[in-house]
Amino acid sequence: MGDKWTVADIPDQRGRVAVVTGANTGLGYETAKALAERGASVVLAVRDVDKGLRAATRMGGDVTVQALDLTSLDSVRTAAAALRSRFDRLDLLINNAGVMYTPKQTTADGFEMQFGTNHLGHFALTGLLLDLMLPVPSSRVVTVSSTGHRIRAAIHFDDLQWERSYGRAAAYGQSKLANLMFTYELQRRLASHGATLAVAAHPGMSNTDLIRNTPAALRLPVTWLAPLITQTPAMGALPTLRAATDPGVLGGQYYGPGGRNGIKGHPRPVTSSPQSYEVAVQQRLWAASEDLTGVTFPVVRERHAPAQPEKQKDPR
Question: How far is CA 2 from the centre of its chain?
C-alpha cells in the first residue's frame, strides 16, 4: 500500500455491520456507499428517512435506513433501541453527521445546536451502542472532526451552551474539539479491553452542503473558490474510510488529507491541536457529557498507563 490510499485499499467487509450517521448525503453518503460496495451491511442513520431511502436505492449491497435525529436525546435512545433489536453485534459506528456555522438555536433538549448535534448526540449514541461492539474483534468507533477544531476553539465549561454570547465559528470549533477529546478519552477507557478502537478523522475542505450556513458575507466567495480549495465528497470521505477499515490503524489516531495544510489529498495519520491532548480537559468534558445526556458508558476498566494516546508525528 503506497501513500495514495483509496477505496481500492478497503479490505473485504463481508460479515461486518456498520452504522453511519448522516449518511444520506455528502461525506456520510460516500462513506456508507464504499462500505456497502465492499460487502458490509450498512445502516444509514438519518434524520430524514425519505432522503435516506432515496440514498439507499443509489447504493449497491445490503443497505437499510434507521431514523435518527441527533438533536433529540429521545430520538437517539429510540434509534439505539431499534438497532439493538436488529443486531446482536456492531463492527463500525461512524459518527459522521454534523452541522456547521448554524445561527444561534438550541436542540430539543436545550443544548446549543452545534455542540448538541456534533458532540452530545454522538456521545449518547456511542454510549448506548458500545456494548454491542466490545466483544467484536477489530470493531471501531470513528468520529469525524474538522480542521475547525483549531479555529477559536476551546471547551467553555462556564458557558457550554453559549447562553451569554454566541459566535458561529467558535461554537463550531468547540464542537469539533469535543469530537477529538471524546475520541482520545474513549480510547483511553478502551485501551485495556483491546477489541474496540476509537479513532478520529477529518475530511479537509470538501465541497458538501455544509456550506449553506456559511455567513452571508463569505458564502459567495467560498462558492467561487470551492473548485480550487476543496475536494470532492468522495475524496473527503477517504480519511474516515481508512480510519474505519485499514488493519494498521491504532486506537487514538487521527486521519486526514495528507496534502499541504491538510486541505486535500489522500488520507494519512495527522496531528490535532495541542489542547486536544489535554487529559484533564478530556476527562472533565466526559463527565459533563454524561451529566448532560444522562448516558453512562458500559464499564471498561481504565488502564492508567499509557494515560494518553501518543501524539501522531505529522508527516508533512
Answer: 25
- What 3-state DSSP class applies to 314? coil
Start-end of H helices in the chain: 26-37, 49-57, 73-86, 113-114, 122-129, 168-190, 216-229, 233-236, 238-245, 279-293
**CA 208 to CA 226: how far, in whole Å?**
10
Q: Is the Cβ–Cβ distance between 123 and 289 less than 8 Å?
A: yes
Distant-in-sequence, close-in-space partners of 221: CB < 8 Å, separation ≥ 6:
none
Cell numbers for 136: 467484536
Give per-residue pLDDT as tens, 161-202.
999 999 999 999 999 999 999 999 999 999 987 799 999 999
Backbone angles phi, psi at 64, to 5 degrees: -125, 175
pTM: 0.89
d(CA 207, CA 195): 35
Calculate helix-pair angle for 26-37, 238-245, nearest 10 degrees. Answer: 40
DSSP letters spanning 204-243: -SB--GGGGGS-HHHHHHHHHHHHHH-B-HHHHTHHHHHH
* Pairing, β 254-257 against β 267-269: antiparallel
Residue numbers annotated as active site: 172
Question: Per residue in 45-66, pLDDT tens?
Answer: 999 999 999 999 999 899 999 9
Cβ-contact 32, 23 below 8 angstroms: yes
